Queue: 3 jobs
Job 1
Amino acid sequence: GIEGRVDGATCDTDGNYWCALVHGAAVACISPAGRMIERIALPVRHPTMVTFGGPRLDQLYVTTARQLLPEGERAAWPQAGALLRIDGIGATGVAEPFFGAP
């Protein structure tokens, strides 16, 4: 099984589903067949959302939460609340459509 709870997610050009594992200190990549094909450990307990970015959409950005940590655990997770960038994952994101309000 997957440790943590699946939270924010995005897809890559191969149809894989990349998701933050809140309470799981990781990001997971799930294949279209439903198998976890990668798990990337993070220096934060509560990642909340993932998205691809960079000029080639080959960097994975991860938002994280600090407020979910009990006060006594915050020193153990000093990067909680930060925006993380993961390079070299070997995947390319799908461009998100722009929203144009009238």
Note: Residues 5-86 form a domain with the Thrombin, subunit H fold (CATH 2.40.10).
Job 2
Amino acid sequence: LRGYGGQVRWLRVVYAAFEEYAGDAERLVTRPESDPDRFDYVEGFAFVNGPDPVNGWPSVPIPAGCGSRFDPDRIPPDSGPVLYCLELALHYDHRDRDNVDERIGNMLRPLRHVRGLEFAADVSYVDFLSRVNCAEEEARANGTWAAPHPWLNLLVAARDIPGFDREVFKRVLRKGIGGPMLVYPLVKSKWDPRTSVALPNSEVFYLVALLRFTRPYPEGPTAEELVAQNREIIRICRSNGYDFKLYLPHYDTQSEWAHHFGDGWPRFVERKARYDPMALLAPGQKIFPRAHAPPLGS
């Protein structure tokens, strides 16, 4: 290992329209690696269009941003119940700091975010990588980490994400979940096809991660209510015919797992027979029974 003394310009920009948010995010993640105006990190999240300190406007400014404040007067008057924040980062050497402002300005100029709702902070590379750990420490301190918080992670095809936004973010989750509602695009060709992860049938698809941090009952909802909301979201995806996959799902039957893996199921079965022929690791996630492994080549 060797030390890295670089800096990170950490940015957040706000959108009122999901179509503009998604369009900009997809253009950013599909830029070639060689593009000099390519951000090193592109993620994003949905948040409540309101003053709620956990789910709304105050959750957007970067913690290290020196007291920057969210100005709700900048929000277009016809905005809906949910807004969107594109989160970006650019790594740079501290010796290049004089050029960073101009470079960032040029990279942000084509984006269609709400002007005046931009937030930035310069942090060390290590501090940027540690930002999630800081959120965990805060959750442990306020008691939300120990409370039941069933997270839901889905991968949704790009063609279906506008419908998901309309049916889930703007309706089911319009009041927030007590934590981040991540939604940002990924590129399928960048994933190693040799792995067993199941992905939508789309070159561009979206990660949707509902990372709840709610107060323990009775201050917050019961675990049963949160699980029911997760199931309602999955029901909406299925009833609307969305091309989606659950990430780290829980299924009870082999037929459900076969549907989950889709065209990758025969290869998954072959690998099980090859590397665990006695089914010693079954039933595990209830994919294969303990009694026997599938015959090689089935």
Note: The longest strand covers residues 82-92.
Job 3
Amino acid sequence: MFFTWHKIMADTWIWVLYWKRELLKSLTPAFGWGWAINWVKEDSFIPSGLPHRFEPGTPNIVWAVSLLKSLEYIESIWWYKEIEKNEEELIKYFLKKYEAVKDKVKLLGSEKNENRVWVFTFYIEWFHSSDIADLMAEQNICIRAWHHCAEPFMNKFNLSNTFRASLYIYNSKEDIDMFFEVLEWILKEI
């Protein structure tokens, strides 16, 4: 299992790779330095034991502290059920607002609230997503555009680019209103 922590407001470039211990025992690192190795020979090296063999170099303490602080922040302002309730309300509201543009803007994934996360990926067949992102940015709305590091997924749907709006605990219905106001303005202008 792999996940990044910037999704919960930690610094970028910190991530977690969780593997079963039995699988890790069967893997040999391709390279090593620092505490990841026990012994170096001229043409090979002997790796350290687990988990150190896969953690060469100095640990990134600053990013690890940012992870800790992001978790502390989330715990200080919300309980998990409140995050879930807020998420459900915003998803429902977002999908309701989407109804006004759905004839021109296609949503990938379900238009239903059930089993949905608060990430919405769209495309407009006749307009490039990077242009939409630029126009949104001019109105202080940050969205992601292009292929989102998911080219195989995009190829499956015969899409070259999409734009994505993501919500999080700091977003509100007013943010959603602004997103759709600007999107409707873009649709009228193009």
Note: Residues 80-98 form the longest helix (19 residues).
